[in-house]
Amino acid sequence: MFVTGCNFDKKFVACDAAGLLLEWIARQGRYASESKMPSSYWERAIVFVDMDAFFASVEQKDNPALRGHPVAVTNGQQGTCIITCSYEARARGIHTGMRISEAQQLSPQLVQCPARPQRYAYFAGLIAETLRREISPELEIFSVDEVFIDVTRSQKMFGTPEKIAQRVQQIMDDVVQLPCTIGISGDKTTAKYAAKLHKPKGLAVVPPWQARKYLHDVPVKKLCGIAEGIGRFLAARGVYTCGDMQHLPIGVLGKRFGYPGRRIWLMCQGQDPDKIHTTVAAPKSMGHGKVMPPDTRDSKTIRMYLLHMSEKLAMRMRHHQLAASTFSIGLLTRYGWLGDTYRAPTPTHDGSAITRMTLEMLDQYWRGEGVSQVSITALDPQPVDGQLELFDGLATEEKPARNKAMDIINNRYGELTLAPARLLNRSEMPNVISPAWKPAGHRQSI
């Protein structure tokens, strides 16, 4: 069965605890006196760009008649759950995750817009390309609507960090023409938290030597990456705010969580050591999920969604020449997740093989509960380099020629133009863009 775990960012580099401590101590000495810090140059400067109500803002940009009106983006015209909404809608009490029927009661003037993932991906790519060209190549796409930029070296060209942040905002206005909020500090965590407090269209500047004081009274779980699991661990040791962290030895977190724990300790001091990640690491997992009509109990409908996600995952794995043996399969009910982990006899990227495992899960765990979401994840994707015969049984059990022909047709004419017969009469199942979307590689997924 599934167990809820820590949701901390896994993109960590190997780092020695002593090295982190020495670095932190050195910084404390440098930042001991604000008056000694030059006001025009920071030793490290990180800009965080957070697009404001990104999907809704794109809809208002493309349709000027929507500007100034409450807008809710849903997964297709028949979507019942709000993916995001404009600030005009938020002012009326509408929020992400709310049912569209409930939102319409709060605001009868609410305009429902079906999501257009391809359009959002276009603008996300444009934002990254523009900032990389105009500001700095040291850029990390953190999510589809969030970007980190290391502008330390850019100070010599563009001036103070505040001027750089203003320049970024101006570029967004002139080139992309979408609203954003900017946070800038000496580390990623502080810059991101500061931006969150100044939305929308805000600009937050926190000099690195003020970051520790700035975060002192902030609850630790408000920082990005500190989820419920780590939050409970810290609370059990009397750490509720970032200021409380000063009384907990870094070794306690290091012993329990390794480098991520030591990083958390430094994050709370305004000294997050995490660097800008300009490349996308090889996938540790790959999955697809889909929100269903609430409280779905029809077996055929649930099987249809599982089949759809199986085929979608299989096509994506084949596109990136990956295969996997272990799959996590689950259904979300009002009581939590139902499901388990399953192993294929041989590594696979075939939709039929994955579908068989989903049906096994359904028979084992589903007893008629209302389902609101399905999820399928390949837990151990490995490259096959196009040589399917490397895996015993893969080329014979599956039908590589069939899959190849299907992929060629679908790549040319659109996803699932050619699909299993059981999917041909499916109801509309619009795609969504993943929050972890990247402009290239295996996360370029919609």
- Evaluate the radius of gyration: 24 Å
CATH H-level homologous superfamily name of the largest domain: Reverse transcriptase/Diguanylate cyclase domain
- Stretches where pLDDT is under 50 for at least 5 consecutive residues are 1-17, 30-38, 386-396
As a percent range, the share of helical residues equals: 25-40%
CATH topology grouping of the largest domain: Alpha-Beta Plaits
How much of the residues is beta strand, in percent?
15-25%
- Backbone shape: globular
Mean pLDDT: 84
Helix/strand/pairing class, anyone?
alpha+beta
Under the CATH scheme, which class of the largest domain? Answer: Alpha Beta
State the end-to-end CA separation.
28 Å
So how many helices? 17
* Major β-sheet strand ordering: 5-6-1-7-8
**SSE run:** HEHEEHHEHEEHHEHEHHHHEHEEHEEHHH
Q: What can be said about the biggest beta sheet? A: 5 strands, mixed
Explain how this protein is built.
The structure is a single chain. With 446 residues, the chain is an alpha+beta fold. The protein folds into 3 domains: 40-51 and 121-267, Reverse transcriptase/Diguanylate cyclase domain (Alpha-Beta Plaits), CATH 3.30.70.270; 54-116, MutS, DNA mismatch repair protein, domain I, CATH 3.40.1170; 286-421, Dna Ligase, domain 1, CATH 3.30.1490.100. Helices cover 38% and strands 19% of the residues. The chain contains 17 helices and 13 strands. The chain has helices spanning 17-30, 54-62, 87-90, 100-106, 117-134, 155-158, 161-176, 188-196, 211-215, 228-235, 250-257, 259-267, 299-319, 351-365, 394-397, 400-413, 421-424, and strands spanning 46-51, 71-74, 82-85, 111-114, 139-143, 146-150, 180-185, 203-205, 286-296, 322-333, 336-348, 371-378, 382-383. The strands form 3 sheets. It has a 5-stranded mixed beta sheet with strand order 5-6-1-7-8. Strands 9, 10, 11, 12 and 13 form a 5-stranded antiparallel beta sheet that branches. A hairpin with a 7-residue loop joins strand 2 (71-74) and strand 3. Helix 5 packs across helix 7. The longest helix has 21 residues, at 299-319. The protein is globular, with a radius of gyration of 24 Å. Residues 1-17, 30-38 and 386-396 have low confidence and may be disordered.
